[in-house]
């Protein structure tokens, strides 16, 4: 609870600054489409240690990205066509967290940005 509160306060105190386009805040869901180009967006910024919900929706039938795997998560999340699948991840304290299709051809990155 305390961590969530601090995260909310941090988010509130940052309101004056221009927000990056794909910032994922507390409790927010980040929509990620799977298209012929791969994951869109493929870069999501978030705060250190933030819980992030990624909602993947596969929009193309012919793609090898019919599932997604998140670094450090042993679960392969299947992505049925046009059916949103929510994947909860916790951002590391710094650095990045990668996600990719099972063959590691299409990739995305969650970038931790210190607030
Ligand atoms: Cu692939």
Kindly identify the CATH topology: Immunoglobulin-like
Ligand types? copper (II) ion
**End-to-end gap:** 19 Å
Number of helices: 1
- Structure summary, number of beta strands: 10
Question: How would you characterize this protein structure?
Answer:
There is one protein chain. By secondary structure, the protein is mainly beta. The protein has one domain: Immunoglobulin-like (Sandwich), CATH 2.60.40.420. The chain is built from 1 helix and 10 strands; from the N terminus they run H-E-E-E-E-E-E-E-E-E-E. It has a 6-stranded mixed sheet, with no helix packed on it. The protein has a 4-stranded mixed sheet with strand order 3-2-5-8, with no helix packed on it. The longest helix is centred in the first third of the chain and has 12 residues, at 2-13. The protein starts with a helix and ends with a strand. Residues 1-21 have low confidence and may be disordered. The site of copper (II) ion has 6 residues, from loops.
Compact description:
With 115 residues, the protein is mainly β. Helix content is 10%, strand content 42%. Strand 6 (67-70) and strand 7 form a beta hairpin.
């Amino acid at each position: 609870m305390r961590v969530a509160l601090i995260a909310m306060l941090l988010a509130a105190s940052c309101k004056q600054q221009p927000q990056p386009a794909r910032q994922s805040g507390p409790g927010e869901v980040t929509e990620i489409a799977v298209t012929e180009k791969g994951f869109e967006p493929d870069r999501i910024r978030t705060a250190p240690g933030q819980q992030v919900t990624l909602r993947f929706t596969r929009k193309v039938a012919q793609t090898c990205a019919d599932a997604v795997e998140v670094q450090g998560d042993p679960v392969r999340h299947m992505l049925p066509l046009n059916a949103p699948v929510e994947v909860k991840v916790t951002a590391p304290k710094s650095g990045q967290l990668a996600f990719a299709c099972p063959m590691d051809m299409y990739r995305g990155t969650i970038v931790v940005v210190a607030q």
